[in-house]
Amino acid sequence: MTRTLGLELLESVLSSYPSVFIKHSEFAQLLKDQVCPLIIKLFAPNHKQMQITSQHPCAPNTHVSLDSVSPQTSSSPERVYFPISMRLLRVIVILITLYYNLLVTECEIFLALLVKFLESDKLGWQRAIALEVLHKIVISPELLIWFCENYDAKPNATKAISSIVSGLAAYVQLSFLHLDVSETSTFIVEKIFFVDLINKCKCICPFNALSHCVVNREYTSRIISASKDDEQFEANVQSGSQPGFQYRDVWIPLCQNITSKKSLLLDSLEKHEAMNLPNGYSLSLTYYCVVNCCQSVFEATESLLSRKEKKDIARELYQSTYPSLLAATSLFLDASVDESITEQLLKCFVTMTLLSCRLGHTTGRDAAYFALCKASLPRKYLVRITSASGGLSAIPGSLTSPNSHLEKDALSGSKMEKVENESVSSQPCQIIAVGTVCPTPSLPLSFYSGTVMLTAKNVQVAHILISSAEANGQDLGDCWHLVLTSIQHLVWILGMTPSMQGGFRSDGEIIDGTSLVTGPHSNANVLTTAAMADVPVVSAMLNKLFDSTTKLDDVALHHVIAALCKLSSEAMTVSQNGSREPSFFPVAKLQQTGMANLARLEVFWRPLTAHLIEVSGHPYAKLREWGAQALTVLVKSALKIKTAAEESKRQQLILSPLSSMSEIEYTDVRRKQIECLVNVLQSSGQQLTSDQWPTVIETVRVVVAGKLSYDEILVKQSYEALALMITDFLEVLPFHCIQLLVETDAKYGSQQCELNISLSALGQLWAISDFVYRNTPKISRKESETIWLVLYNCLSELCVDVRPPVRKSACQTLLQTIVAHGLALKPETWQHMVWKILFPMLDKVRTLTLSASTTRTNSSILGASNILIHHSRDTESKQWVETSVQTLSGIVKIFNAQRTLLLALDDFAAIWTTLLRYIEYLAASDNSEMTLAAFKSFQTFEELALIHCLYTLYMQLYFSSVSGNEEGTNLPEQLWIASWKSWMTMSRTLVLTKSFKVDIPSDSLTSLSRRGEERFIPGQMHLITLLHIFTTIFERVRKKISCDDLKYDEVPSVLK
């Protein structure tokens, strides 16, 4: 019997009666003791080196020891007998697929021998037939589970699955990279990446993955010197629309209709020699092995996860397969020039990313997403970015170091354009966009001068990347940074600029056609019409991605926000010196993410708004505009969304960042802040709780009261908010905020930027005083009087403003307010107002009048230019004269209006005497207007006393109960005597022009009577007023004055 016949009979028995061997231990033992050793002996790796003289299994020469065969024996192809090798592999397929439960050790040996057949020192048909066998194995999820449980998952055992998948990945390298020696190290680097990620995350497999996944130098040399009988691929020959792969000018077609049920070599039972394989058959087999293996791993993992006790096995299965599967898939994807192949490979990536997330395998997740991100960008783009930055999301430093010539070319400052053009010239890729490198802090400035090209395949991968991130966002963790970085670079190259209204706009130059020939263009971004069709699709997918963050839990949402904040910080670093415009993608998507998750703003609000405040304070104008826009949009929207949190705390959380914007020095940002505040008041002002109003008022106050500068536009905007609060929200404001509102309004009255606002603010103080007066019964007396004192104090300070119109308006408002609402104050409060507010105001006016300039000035002091000024007001001194007259006249009228209250004060005598001193001081002025005003004020003052006396007399005549209180209600005699003495002093100063000294503050420079070179000549009105006063006072004091006052030198000389 020949060996071929024996092997066929053995195959027939084993395939037809597996139940016999499984049920009867005798037959099972026969398999172990007789069949398997024979198969192993015939299938030994160096069996091809033996001279086969007989095909009978019992022939003497078959028992020659394999170890005795010299390794130098010639290994010509004729010595490897195809019919026996093919039938041996058919038997092995049956043993592995049907009897694996009985042959644990033997299957391990068979698998190791199969992997050996993939090495480069084997013949081409040997590698192809081994791939056919492996294809039948990897399509079975049950087999993979069993292998993992019995080999890979056991300590100190052979990693069978890892060996198989690593052998497939090594064969992909053999097929592609022996075509170009210079690319070998690049593949090795990518293989190192997937294994090094394991070490980085301390998830090292219990086996030496490098022995399977990483091709060492010796093995690489064997790849390069592969035997000449391999399939020969033709350069740049692609037949029609046949799918396939192209790598470095070499076209490798994809043989279709390859299945595990029909094999070219394993089913060649009638052939005595291996048939000539179709071009690309072995690589096509490897491609289907990799694709089917991904699917089988997914199904096996799903099955294991359904049984909770098998989760560790599922994790080990993924651990054993993902490094090599990702490396092989990445290389296939890099070489793919067919959309359907690319789509199938991307399904593998989706499968691997989904499994890594379900298993919580962070290393595998990072590796899978790195491969996807790398494929979504121009060739070598992401590698350069990660190499320059020293690592992105745990990317190892060895990623670029083995490829020194690339590192030197990419990172030493050479232009990127040359490298990119070389990389795309060898593939018939559809280039749909040409753009610049997205600015990154780690890249040298010279790196931005070149252009990069985006292909249709890049965009196709990007679609999968975005969809996968949306599906697995819950489990991405730190990998969000890598994903969002890649998306940011993609939209930059596509010229997709975020819009403040939402979405993207394309700023690139549009070229008709579906493909783009590389060459110089006038614009930074050049897009084909095909790319313009992709832009809305990518934009919609990105919007969906960030809107879907509502489905993430709190931790995952924080990872998204942290990644966007990190990208935004990089953009801030790029634009620090203003040499490059950064990407606004991170800030725009921070806004979108925040808007999508406003229902749980308590989770993310503080870190997100803190970063936006930092962006808003950036020196680069466009960037801080984005930051302010995002922050204010979030604040306005957040107030409209109700959450489960307590309303007061929720509003405080929302308004806190808006208030913090007051610390930013840039006025454009604070304009956005105030614009937002006005919008909040208009839309949600009635819903604000009492705790938030101090924050709102303080935000408006600090515009003009803080240390930062402001301009006219900002003042107008902020005053609009203040006026809105006064006109619409006084009724809902908590009463303790009224005081803060008065002080804030007074600050706007004193600001020097806009005169009209200052005058309008004074009118608002009058409105507030009316409101307080109407609501006095609703509040305590103490609260009411506190507000009144604050209001009057603010008005008194405005009465000494440097601008005459403001001073005049303040005086009028103060007078009207006290006259109208003075009765609301207690006598004790009136004492405070007289001594702490009114008299200090007169002191300030007197001091400022003394120090005022007598030089002619322009109209700018009035707060407006190009206004003609009357000669009586063309100096500061003359303008302060008017203020002096107004303030004194106003206070006298206040005394007149509130005489009943004032006369009841215990210290009224001191008040009377002090006011007389101010009148005497003004009468001693060398200014006719001030002197006349002093006399008229004195006249009004004395008429006040006289009217009160007449009123008292009237009460005595008709109400007998008053008769006993005459002394208490009439003006005391000593005050009439004091008034007489004041009249004498003022009349002597006016008529007899005697020197007159008045006690004035030490900081005043000189007496008013000495400021002019010549005294004025009193007019008729001065003398008439003086005489009117004399008749009133003399009638009251004629019986009380001393005779000395009637001597010729005194009263007679004055009257004369």
UniProtKB/TrEMBL annotation:
<dbReference type="Pfam" id="PF09324">
    <property type="entry name" value="Sec7-like_HDS"/>
</dbReference>
<dbReference type="InterPro" id="IPR016024">
    <property type="entry name" value="ARM-type_fold"/>
</dbReference>
<feature type="domain" description="Mon2 C-terminal">
    <location>
        <begin position="727"/>
        <end position="779"/>
    </location>
</feature>
<dbReference type="InterPro" id="IPR015403">
    <property type="entry name" value="Mon2/Sec7/BIG1-like_HDS"/>
</dbReference>
<feature type="domain" description="Mon2 C-terminal">
    <location>
        <begin position="785"/>
        <end position="940"/>
    </location>
</feature>
<protein>
    <recommendedName>
        <fullName>Protein MON2 homolog</fullName>
    </recommendedName>
</protein>
<feature type="domain" description="Mon2/Sec7/BIG1-like HUS">
    <location>
        <begin position="78"/>
        <end position="158"/>
    </location>
</feature>
<dbReference type="InterPro" id="IPR032691">
    <property type="entry name" value="Mon2/Sec7/BIG1-like_HUS"/>
</dbReference>
<dbReference type="Pfam" id="PF16206">
    <property type="entry name" value="Mon2_C"/>
</dbReference>
<feature type="domain" description="Mon2/Sec7/BIG1-like HUS">
    <location>
        <begin position="2"/>
        <end position="53"/>
    </location>
</feature>
<feature type="domain" description="Mon2/Sec7/BIG1-like HDS">
    <location>
        <begin position="646"/>
        <end position="720"/>
    </location>
</feature>
<dbReference type="Pfam" id="PF12783">
    <property type="entry name" value="Sec7-like_HUS"/>
</dbReference>
<dbReference type="InterPro" id="IPR032817">
    <property type="entry name" value="Mon2_C"/>
</dbReference>
